[in-house]
């Protein structure tokens, strides 16, 4: 995709942020032994077009990452999540954070400042590190993420087993939760089940909470349970709405949102 396309997407999302049209829907992470017990709900980004059409974050986040604007979007969603948690004191949420937040010093400073300001809700917010881009260097990333944990937040590795996530990542980073990519439950058979068991076993070495994503059938739920996972996430137990459950801009006037976006 060319730079003109990147610029077009950035302008479009910036405009949506300025006008309170960025929000999120929720998908639960459920206990595998007691599916009615919710660990927390992940915020899934949504963009509302002026005509009411809803866009999921999967339709634009790759462009934001390629153009270096994903961290600003992440911060906006965290602001919204913090507002939601203030209004729902019994809830817990998880927000995706691009690895670019860790790689870039300015992005990290802005993110840490935001998390520090909202540290009152830290025990109820999980920071999910998405690794569509490499985390480097890992030693520095480990120190940064530990500082987030010291504020009281939990840290999760998202989509483990695909993209740029590796066993080296698990060895280097102290995390509370590892989420196994749904790819590993999409196949049936002895080989696929062994792969899933190995992935869950590896994740269990790094975190006591292991979530298998992409659960859409009871057979997949049973496979995740047999593999030793503690929690699951997927349409079988929690299908998020397309319209956002929460959206708008918080703690900023529209012009301030635009200024933050450009950082």
Automatic annotation (TrEMBL):
Lineage summary: Bacteria, Pseudomonadati, Pseudomonadota, Alphaproteobacteria, Hyphomicrobiales
Family annotation (SMART domains): EAL (SM00052)
Classification via CDD domains: EAL
Domain EAL positions: 6-254
Gene3D superfamilies associated with the record: EAL domain (3.20.20.450)
InterPro entries (alphabetical): Cyclic-di-GMP_PDE-like, EAL_dom, EAL_sf
GO molecular function term, any single one: cyclic-guanylate-specific phosphodiesterase activity
Name under which the protein is recorded: EAL domain-containing protein
A Pfam family recorded for this sequence: EAL
Domain of life from the UniProt record: Bacteria
């Amino acid at each position: 995709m060319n730079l003109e396309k990147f610029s077009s997407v950035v302008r479009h999302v910036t405009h949506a942020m300025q006008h309170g049209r960025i929000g999120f829907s929720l998908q639960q992470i459920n206990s595998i032994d007691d599916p009615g017990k919710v660990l927390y709900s992940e915020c899934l980004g949504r963009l509302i077009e002026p005509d009411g059409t809803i866009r999921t974050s999967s339709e634009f986040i790759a462009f934001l990452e390629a153009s270096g604007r994903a961290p600003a979007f992440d911060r906006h969603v965290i602001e919204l999540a913090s507002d939601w948690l203030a209004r729902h004191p019994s809830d817990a949420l998880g927000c995706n954070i691009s690895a670019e937040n860790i790689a870039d010093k300015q992005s990290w400073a802005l993110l840490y400042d935001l998390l520090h300001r909202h540290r009152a809700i830290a025990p109820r917010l999980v920071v999910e590190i998405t690794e569509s881009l490499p985390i480097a260097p890992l030693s520095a990333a480990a120190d940064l993420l530990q500082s987030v944990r010291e504020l009281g937040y939990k840290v999760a590795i998202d989509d483990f087993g695909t993209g740029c996530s590796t066993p080296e990542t698990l060895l280097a980073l102290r995390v509370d939760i590892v989420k196994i990519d749904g790819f590993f439950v999409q196949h049936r058979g002895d080989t696929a089940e062994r792969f899933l068991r190995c992935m869950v076993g590896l994740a269990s070495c790094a975190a006591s909470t292991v979530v298998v994503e992409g659960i859409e059938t009871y057979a997949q739920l049973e496979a995740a349970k047999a593999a030793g996972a503690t929690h699951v996430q997927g349409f079988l137990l929690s299908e998020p709405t397309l319209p956002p459950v929460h959206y708008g801009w918080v703690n900023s006037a529209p012009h301030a949102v635009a200024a933050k976006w450009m950082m």
